[in-house]
Design a protein that fits this description.
By secondary structure, this protein is of the alpha/beta class. Helices cover 43% and strands 17% of the residues. It is elongated.
């Protein structure tokens, strides 16, 4: 019997990390890999994976619950930092190896337990070279490799795209997709720029796709602005991307921002902050534009530059689409299988 891989993701909501977890599980299923998901009870990820006919073990989210639920697994794959300690406990109790995917560019905890838990991992997969550098700086003895996130491969519904375009008829849609988490994504910067450009450039429409804990605050900040639209959480993200004229991601921090690959896959010109792993993908002036984080003037100027240059948008979009071809779910899945095999010797 082939070994059982237990994915652990105890996040409550559904953000980029959860989308990447689901993409990997889908890819591994197509390869016949035995797997199970350990997820938070009542969270958003569990029902989506259960719909794939994959076993789901729901837990409260604490380390002990993760450790108990991972019985029978040959390898644990941790997709977020909360679960590292549960895997460490399981490893102490049964010797079960584990690997960690590190998606964020913030420092790893300096307390002794975090250090032991990361030291105990067979490998850490960083979603960008910059994150790999953070892990190496934390402890050079931790085995680390780069495995980028992947595009989702959204199926686009032409009729729904047309409906979105009709809703914003005669508008140039500056789109953003992401959880409404201002500390990370800095949607306030978008609102600030929208307010500045409302009168001078009335055809610009800023469309923010996604929900989150800062939704009320951000809507209050945008009060009175006809050129800002909040869609809330939507299932058809690909249709919105296909309807956008330009994509912006002015984050304060990012690991890699998987949605970036989705935007590039749709041939969109992109403007992103030069943070985390984003400059590893977007090369300024070649396949998109880079700006400094928290610089509304740079975001404004970049938007206006591309707004007035349709041919340049097309060229940047075409180059971005070529880049996205290297970051498919299949490519990500293959690299994780190689990682699993380096630990177990065989997976399928």
């Amino acid at each position: 019997m082939t070994p059982l891989i237990a994915h652990v993701n105890t996040a409550r909501g559904y953000r980029g990390g959860e989308r990447q977890t689901e993409l990997l599980i889908q890819g591994l299923k197509s390869r016949g890999v035995r797997q199970v998901l350990i997820a938070r009870r009542g969270g958003a990820l569990a029902p989506r994976v259960r719909d794939l006919r994959i076993e789901v073990r729901e837990v409260g989210g604490g380390p002990l619950s993760v450790a108990f639920a991972s019985g029978g697994a040959a390898l644990l794959h941790l997709h977020e930092g909360r679960s590292v300690y549960g895997a460490y406990l399981r490893s102490l109790a049964s010797g079960t190896p584990y690997v960690i995917t590190r998606r964020v560019d913030n420092p790893i905890g300096r307390h002794w337990l975090a250090h032991r838990a990361y030291r105990g991992a067979k490998a850490v997969a960083a979603v960008a070279p910059q994150i790999a550098d953070i892990v190496r700086a934390y402890d050079a003895a931790i085995p680390v490799r780069v495995i980028h996130s992947a595009s989702t491969g959204f199926v686009v519904n032409a009729a729904k795209v047309a409906a979105i375009r009709a809703r914003f008829a005669d508008k140039f849609i500056v789109g953003h997709v992401g959880a409404l988490d201002n500390a990370q994504k800095n949607q306030q910067l978008i609102i600030r720029v929208a307010r500045e450009l409302e009168r001078s450039h009335p055809t610009l429409q800023f469309v923010l796709v996604g929900g989150g804990s800062d939704e009320a605050m951000l809507k209050a900040a945008a009060q009175g602005l006809a050129n800002v639209t909040f869609t809330g959480f939507v299932q058809n993200v690909g249709d919105y991307l296909a309807a956008f004229d330009l994509f912006i991601l002015p984050s304060n921090r990012e690991g890699i921002g998987g949605i970036l690959f989705d935007a590039m896959e749709q041939g969109l010109a992109v403007i992103v902050s030069a943070v985390g792993g984003l400059p590893d993908i977007v090369h300024h002036g070649e396949n998109g534009l880079l700006i400094e984080a928290a610089r509304p003037d740079q975001l404004r100027d970049a938007i206006l530059e591309l707004f007035g240059a349709p041919q340049r948008r097309r060229v940047l979009g075409m180059r971005g689409r070529e880049v996205a071809k290297d970051f498919t779910a299949e490519a990500m899945c293959r690299k994780y299988v190689e990682l699993y095999e380096s630990v177990l010797g065989s997976v399928v």
